[in-house]
């Protein structure tokens, strides 16, 4: 079981020196095992900070985060993270980067080769398996980072604006791949995005945050509509024109717009 429980979590920065800043205040959120949630909110509302606490890269000042019933005290192989700023191993090839997590969980060579072939074809990066990150463009590096997180197949996938740097076409491919992946092999996903469309398209629930201090403004259920309207059987462009989709998108937009001075 890989549910994420964010239990009355607060985060204050600059407690040691400087003026304390309350970045997150009393956030309660339970992401069910195999549920996909997206998180939207104005910049500075604490989305990244919240995810870093789930990843174990940042510690809550109050409250606690539990993943699979265990209190998070640091990073772990049960959680894969994709940041906006991609982080590949510079000394490893594309193939080694994609299969890094698969190796640690004991995947066979045949499985690893199949994953590399699958993702490089999907991402239109055939022939790059032996290249090093510095030989790739930023967008290609980001695709490799995403492929690594998908291939690792962890219980929990944490993604912080992972598609932001991609061109529109690759972005669509990666969005559809994430939906396919979570359909075929459900896992718990927390996905931060600036795009309301992406948030609604990908998630079972959309968490809308507010800032000063960072907190949850509202949570919108999408899963019921997605299932009823069979979104996963349609191409993304068609889904985005369905009235059920535009209705939910409008709901999220209104909540965001309500927040004075938001520059999302
Ligand atoms: N390490 C840090 N030290 C001090 N302040 C920070 C730190 N990290 C984030 N903050 C502040 O916390 C707030 C939330 O930041 P962040 O989580 O990055 O927001 P978001 O991802 O929603 O844009 C911002 O005001 C940011 O400046
Ligand atoms: Mg952020």
Q: What do you see in this structure?
A:
This protein has 264 residues and is of the alpha/beta class. It has a domain at 1-78 and 195-264: Rossmann fold, CATH 3.40.50.300. 38% of the residues lie in helices and 23% in strands. It is built from nine helices and ten strands. The chain has helices spanning 47-55, 94-104, 109-122, 138-152, 168-184, 196-202, 223-229, 236-239, 243-258, and strands at 4-13, 21-31, 36-40, 62-67, 70-71, 79-82, 156-160, 188-192, 205-210, 215-221. The strands form two sheets. It has a six-stranded mixed sheet, with helices on both faces. A four-stranded antiparallel sheet has the order 2-1-4-5, covered by helices on one side. The mean pLDDT is 91. The structure holds adenosine-5'-diphosphate (ADP) and magnesium ion (MG).
* CATH topology (level 3) name of the domain at 1-78 and 195-264: Rossmann fold
Outline type: globular
Number of strands: 10
Can you identify the CATH superfamily of the domain at 1-78 and 195-264? P-loop containing nucleotide triphosphate hydrolases
Separate helix tally: 9
Structural class by sheet pairing and helices: alpha/beta
User: What is the CATH C-level name of the domain at 1-78 and 195-264?
Assistant: Alpha Beta
Q: How can the largest sheet be summarized?
A: 6 strands, mixed
Major beta sheet, strand line-up? 6-7-8-3-9-10
Bound molecules: adenosine-5'-diphosphate, magnesium ion
Report how far the terminal alpha carbons are from each other. 34 Å
Rg over CA atoms? 18 Å
CATH architecture label of the domain at 1-78 and 195-264: 3-Layer(aba) Sandwich
**Proportion of beta-strand residues:** 15-25%
Q: Give helix and strand order, one letter per element, not per position.
A: EEEHEEEHHHEHEHEEHHH
């Amino acid at each position: 079981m890989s549910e994420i429980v964010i239990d009355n979590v607060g985060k204050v920065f600059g407690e040691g020196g400087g003026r304390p800043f309350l970045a997150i205040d009393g956030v309660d959120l339970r992401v069910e095992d195999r549920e996909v949630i997206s998180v939207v909110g104005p910049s500075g509302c604490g989305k990244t900070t919240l995810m870093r606490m789930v990843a174990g890269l940042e510690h809550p000042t109050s409250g606690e985060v539990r993943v699979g019933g265990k209190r998070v005290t640091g990073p772990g192989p049960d959680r894969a993270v994709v940041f906006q700023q991609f982080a590949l191993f510079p000394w490893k090839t594309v193939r080694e980067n994609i299969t890094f997590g698969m190796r640690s969980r004991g995947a066979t060579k045949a499985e690893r080769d199949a994953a590399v072939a699958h993702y490089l074809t999907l991402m239109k990066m055939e022939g790059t398996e032996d290249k090093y990150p510095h030989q790739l463009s930023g967008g290609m590096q980001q695709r490799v980072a995403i492929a690594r997180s998908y291939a690792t197949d962890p219980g929990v996938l944490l993604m912080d604006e992972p598609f932001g740097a991609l061109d529109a076409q690759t972005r669509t491919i990666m969005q559809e791949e994430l939906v396919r992946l979570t359909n075929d092999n459900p896992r718990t996903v927390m996905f931060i995005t600036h795009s309301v469309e992406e948030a609604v398209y990908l998630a079972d629930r959309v968490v809308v945050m507010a800032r000063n201090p960072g907190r949850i403004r509202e949570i919108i259920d999408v899963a019921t509509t997605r299932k009823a309207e069979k979104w996963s059987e349609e191409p993304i462009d068609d889904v985005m024109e369905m009235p059920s989709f535009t209705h939910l998108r409008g709901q999220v937009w209104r909540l965001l717009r309500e927040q004075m001075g938001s520059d999302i």
